[in-house]
Design goal:
The protein contains ten helices and 13 strands. By secondary structure, the chain is α/β, with parallel strands linked by helices. It folds into two domains: about 210 residues, P-loop containing nucleotide triphosphate hydrolases (Rossmann fold, 3-Layer(aba) Sandwich); about 45 residues. The strands form three sheets. The protein has a six-stranded mixed sheet, sandwiched between helices. β1 and β2 form a beta hairpin.
Amino acid sequence: MDAIKVRGLTKKYKSFTLDGVSFTIPSGTIVGFIGENGAGKTTTIKAMLGLIQKDEGSVELLGHCPEEADGAWKEGIGVVFDESYFPENVTPRDVEKILRRIYRSWDKEAYQKYLKRFAVPEGTRYKELSRGMKMKLSLAVALSHQAKLLILDEATSGLDPVVRSELLDLFLEFIQDEEHTIFLSSHITSDIEKVSDYILLIHQGRVLLFENKDVLIYQYGLVRCSKEQYEKLPPQHCRGHRESVFGYEVLVDNREALERDGGYVIDRISLEELLVFLVREEE
């Protein structure tokens, strides 16, 4: 079963349009959702969750539409935004007392396990927790009501490398049974590159790329060549190019074949370089 299906998702504002976004996320995977600030990542997530009203398109999460009146299935979704919204004076212990009355699938033992694993102090008021501890608390909550799908919007931003590494390891554990899925929005491309199975790139409200990460790593590359060499490249495999006084830089998606058959020297391209290249190509 697919965990997420989005078709033609559109939301229009005066100065920005989320323009016909479509993608399908298979269960048991981690999808890295990337794009520059203002590209439409948070708008996409809020429209997917029904937190803002879409103008066009359809969304299915775990086989259900967000607008369905019966919301019991929504307990299967855990959501973490870049800012948490717990009351300032509650403690993690208070959070458990509140949420066990809200979630029918609440697992107190799992919550305690995650608090202990993350070293979150149960008796400390929320406003006194560090940003990293607040994020760990949010994740502990998201993981403690038997969620099948985690949707994370910049959940690792602003955290130090040690905490981020710990959370990324947890994400990899979460999907091991192939029944759990993570949709991870982040501007930290190294995090995305470490854990994601698929990469979804959005720019100015439109999807520029949705690709298996292994394909990006092993098949995409950057050819630096003359104009004559550029014109000989197979156009169906050229995903973009830049021209400068030194020649051409061409993004290709068949690196191994070109190196083997064409004799081209092709550099591997990192996820961050890919993002910058495609965004500048569009502009």
